[in-house]
Write a structure and sequence with these properties.
There is one protein chain. The chain has one domain. The chain is about 70% helix and about 0% strand. It is built from five helices and no strands. The longest helix has 25 residues, at about 40-65.
Amino acid sequence: MTSEPLMQPLRLRYWWLSGGVLWVATVLYLTLMPAIGGWGWAVTVNDKFGHFIAFFVLMAWFGGVYARANWRFVAVALAAFGIAIELIQGQLSYRSAEFADMLYDFAGIGAAWICVRLGFGRWALRIESWWFEPPG
């Protein structure tokens, strides 16, 4: 019985993984810091767009680092991360939890899932092939 590899066959896998961890830390920081603004509707639209983009980038990033067999786990872990963020925000006096934020998180994960399934999931391998391909 052969087991699927955990990650893509990347030379710089730990650098790519570290970049993903940095993305996760950035999203966590931005979602838990005090809200900026007070511009009403514009902030709400940008907030939802921000949730979508943040989770799209996270799924696309980790989809390029982890092997295809693990993309489902990545999606579930990111969805749990989005839920955890909202639960924590609900406990903060300067933030509020919003169900819509989770929906936009899930939409970003889903849109990126489609992209990685359609071939974008090999983005890190492609970059490494450009970097490490012998001249000639």
